[in-house]
TrEMBL record:
Residues 124-285 form the SIS domain. It comes from the Bacteria. InterPro entries: Homeodomain-like_sf, HTH_RpiR, RpiR-like, RpiR-like_SIS, SIS_dom, SIS_dom_sf, WH-like_DNA-bd_sf. Residues 78-100 are annotated as: Disordered. Keywords: DNA-binding, Transcription, Transcription regulation. This is Transcriptional regulator. Residues 81-98 have a biased composition (Polar residues). SUPFAM superfamilies: Homeodomain-like, SIS domain. It holds the Pfam family HTH_6. It comes from Rhodanobacter panaciterrae. Residues 1-77 form the HTH rpiR-type domain.
Amino acid sequence: MSPLVKIRSERDQMSAVERRIADFILENAQLLRDYSSQQLANALGISQSSVVKFTQKLGFKGYPDLKYSVGEAIARADNGDTPQQTTARAGASDTSPAGNLWRRKSEAEEATRLINSPETIQAVAAAIEQAGKNGKVFILGLGEDDIYARGFALKLSLLGILTVHNFDTARMTANVSAASPGDVLLVFSEHGNHPALCKISRYFRERRGQVITVTRHTANPLRTLADIALVVSAHDEQPYIQPLLYQSALQHLLDGVFVLLCEGHDDRHAQLLANLDRIQLMLEP
């Protein structure tokens, strides 16, 4: 994993001082070779030991190792070693607001992809597939999180998977009382600290159901209750940009799960096509 991607993906779990170091490196990666650990510490007004501890926490032997790794990653990108890096460079050459947003979204999606292993995505798809055969998939999200809960519930319904979607905690609590072993509860919560969602998740686990959470890549109460946790890495200092990055990375993550449910299952694929045809007929005059 590129050191810059690693720093970006781990940022949400860092302390305030660590985030300042991370942001400086991400914003000044090209200039990092000219900074010693002491100079970096002076620029940020922190101790040199804080810089050293930061690099070691990321898995590097020390600051020189981090600086070399960052320089090597930049050199590979400049040489266009991979399609992803070439694409990133193309986006970086566009300095317009739209071009910068495209680049930041690509970075957030890449970081999110790297922190959710293929095995985790496969496990989520397998749990939903199994629940779709013998039970139900409960889907819950509050506020803006319900936008993605609602959209994913529709996609699962198109595949013929029975979903129980709600954005009301009282109604979902009542619905969960009908849960059976093998059912799945998919909970969307960006920050993962809503007490009601945690209570519903505990109740669902008491019913011997499987809880899948979708949150930011942070330590949060809801994530600790998950049998499987999907996490999103998206950060920007601008308050109007950060939600856009989160939404883009989250949608990309969910699309990956949906594709797995479609591929390799001819009956699901056929059900999807049949439902799309029915919907089209309904929309025609």
